[in-house]
Amino acid sequence: MVNIGNEWDTLLKEEWDKPYYKNLREVLKREYQGCEVYPDKNDIFNALRYTSYSDVKAVILGQDPYHQPEQAHGLCFSVKRGVQPPPSLMNIFRELQQDVGVTPPNHGELTDWAKQGVLLLNTVLTVRRSAANSHKNRGWELLTDRVIELLNKRGNTAFILWGNNAKQKASLLTNINNTVITGSHPSPLSANKGGFFGGRYFSRVNAFLRERGIKEIEWSINQ
């Protein structure tokens, strides 16, 4: 039984008994026993643990976790302190500075955002070492789609969709009381072709929240 420790337990309780999730659990048992899989089993649901349903103000959607050692810890694009920020995260920090003037921190851990209501959700929550998308189409997408649907229904949420995988979720976002902000993926290959830098994602989220009388996100990150 999954124990997240907040409202998500009640909202998602029916998912844990569905055939897709039972099958996914069996896959994960084999994978964690026979392969090197990220993140650590205790970190898989960190995005939901850090940001309860009622606290979500914005969602940043990632694809699947970083697939190199010590990087993934359950929050999309984030790495633990002491780990070199990957190129995608460095590009996010560059855009952050250009947009709202925040000096990049000396680490890549984004828990400060999560604690303020930014749900840092990958659409697939696990990955095998050095094998991007290795756990795609195993069942995770059904669970994370449910999370997105619940937030869409609630409204007053800003969704940031970077890259084609994230943009495919736009069809789930039908509530006019939300806003959807899109851009190219921040990976160097995509970002340097154009369509990521200059998107002003962070100031646009805060403008949306401000219009609705919701406390804005403080995007600066503690050193």
Structure write-up:
This protein has 223 residues and is of the alpha/beta class. The protein is 36% helix and 11% strand. It contains 9 helices and 6 strands, in the order ααβαβααββαβαβαα. A 4-stranded parallel sheet has the order 3-2-5-6. It has a two-stranded antiparallel sheet with strand order 1-4. The longest helix has 16 residues. It is globular, with a radius of gyration of 17 Å.
Brief overview, please?
The chain has 223 residues and is of the alpha/beta class. The chain contains 9 helices and 6 strands.
Shape: globular
| Structural class computed from helices and strand pairing | alpha/beta
Overall average residue pLDDT? 96
Q: Major sheet: size, sense and barrel closure?
A: 4 strands, parallel
Blueprint of the fold:
Blueprint: H1 7-11, H2 19-34, E1 37-38, H3 46-50, E2 58-62, H4 87-100, H5 111-115, E3 118-122, E4 127-128, H6 140-154, E5 158-162, H7 163-167, E6 179-183, H8 188-191, H9 201-211
Supply the key terms.
9 helices, 11% strand, alpha/beta, 223 residues, two-stranded antiparallel ribbon
